[in-house]
Amino acid sequence: MKYRRLGASGAKVSELCLGAMTFGEADENSFMHKVGMDEETSFRVMNRALELGINFIDTADVYGQDGLSERVIGAWFEKDKRRDEVVLATKFRFMMGAGPNRSGASRYRIQRCVEASLKRLRTDRIDLYQIHMQDLDTPEEETLRALDDLVTQGKVLYIGCSNYAAYRLMDSLWRSRTAHLASYVTLQAEYSLVTRDIERELLPLCRTNGLGILTWSPLAAGFLTGKYAKDQAPPPGARLEQRKERFARIDNPRNWRILEAVREVAAETSTSPPVVALAWLLHKPEVTSVIFGARSLEQLETNARASELELSPQQVKRLDDASSFELGYPYSFMGNIQGKW
pLDDT (tens digit, 9 = 90+) per residue, 227-259? Predict the structure, then answer.
């Protein structure tokens, strides 16, 4: 396992991050119903991840139900006493609880969210505390000052953001610098061979300002695992078989071309499609860590092999070319004239 700096910070994290969305068995009222794993299996997965060198775990207060994922991690910390071996990341912003302040990123709500997460996680600090999405109803400076206070108090070590637009992230970084507040060190964003939209503005912004990118959905909801076939219905029980609208968006010539290229590289490297798709992201210098989920020890073992796979420059280019996408104006205009944007 290789390690990289956590964005602009000095902390080191594994280049693969264990996503904890599937920790715990949620009931029928949760969006995670029937896709999680029980507590005992979650414990085994976390222990094995540490054995493989994965020291980075990412969760959120909304994962599972009523903080279920955080509670499972907290129970593991208490049982196996491995808190100090983990760089722990969690998120706040989306709906939890009841009342008019059940979502958002106001100072009032952040204080409540962090205390609730600390209690569920059974820890005295959160290593990376992330806002799950920008809040257009709350001034960015209010959010930053509340997070800065948490850093000063030692309840949070670093702060990050997720699902931000480039204009909002640039404004946030400027406010942090001019007001001498804690600044985001990472951006968690959807990024995969299928979804490369962040390359237009967010990736260059992060590169210029030293933010590390944490990628979510690196396998495009399982499409890049290779279990799907063109002109055929998704396999029974597969994630995209249950999410037919998302499969309809993915079912297009570009994405089948991508999957074919992934399969070819997997055959050349004697590995599997998901390992190739994860390794492609690890070849992007702006990426700090690739967040992947695992519902079993087998999935964990498979995905962890991505850290060992070195793709040749020709293979990376083949995957880049297969997944090329329409840049749109003004990026295509700049690219046609200067060859870059």
Answer: 888 888 877 767 776 677 878 888 899 999 999
Domain ranges, residue 155? 3-221+279-309
How much is the pLDDT for 232? Answer: 81
Does 40 fall in a domain?
yes
pTM to 2 decimals?
0.95
Please confirm, yes or no, whether 331 is among the known catalytic residues: no
CATH code for the domain of 62: 3.20.20.100
Indicate whether 289 belongs to any domain: yes
Q: How many CA atoms lie within 13 A of 219 on its CB side?
A: 25
Q: Which of 3, 63, 191, 331 is catalytic?
A: 63
Smallest Cα–Cα separation from 258: which of 224, 218, 231?
224
Residue 186 lies in a domain: yes
Please report the pLDDT score of residue 65 as a whole number: 82
Q: What is the rounded average pLDDT of the residues 105-126?
A: 98
Q: Is residue 288 part of a domain?
A: yes
- Within 195-243, where are the H helices? 202-209, 239-242
Q: Which residues contact 18 (CB under 8 A, 6 or more apart)?
A: 45, 46, 49, 54, 56, 57, 58, 291, 292, 293, 294, 300
pLDDT of residue 34: 66
Query: For residue 223, what are the contacts with CB-CB under 8 A and spacing of at least 6?
Result: 194, 240, 250, 255, 259
- Number of domains the chain contains: 1
Assigned token pair, 230: 């063109």
User: In this prediction, what percent of the chain has a pLDDT beyond 90?
Assistant: 86
Mean pLDDT value across residues 44-72: 96
